[in-house]
Amino acid sequence: MIADNPKPSRSRLDVTARREQLLEIGCQMLRDTPCDQLKLQDVADRAGVSAGLIYRYFGSKQTFLLTLLEREVDAVLAAIDLEAEAPLATKVSSAIASYIDCVLANRNAHLAIHRGDFGADPVVRALIEKNHSALQRRMLAMLQAEGVEATPKQRFAVSACITYAINLVLDWVQGPVIGKDELQDLCAQSIVAILIAASSPARPG
What is the widest separation between alpha-carbon atoms in the chain? Predict the structure, then answer.
């Protein structure tokens, strides 16, 4: 009798290739499964290996999941381009579109990072800070290319814009009351307005 869902045959991979395979499978499964419901046995079955091999490579389920989330953070940074030759508003809008696409591609990972219990983990907190700091540096460099000085006021505004964009997009993902294009425009136009306001001289007195 032939099994309905035979497991994939095992193939020999070196440690680096096998580790990459497991992470790729984990990322794929995370797109359909909330982080706290992902089972290592399911990952192992899809890879055609034992669950024990995942523990051997990563030490624990927590470490495996945290590595998946780190890959998602890195994917966001790789997707956002603020150095293109374009007007400020166009660059901000394009960056927001890229971020929305990243979140839509793996909403469970982003919700786990920013809204789930994983957000309290020191490693995840460090990932969030890494992401925030990298985006802040890129945005300040973008503004400096536009001739805008990186004042404390501007740094504060940039930091607030990043937090605003993340929360706005995640709120939308959890309850999309407007269209994707409307979300992109709302977020980008708001950020540009804040950045312009932050560049204005302080009020006298």
Answer: 87
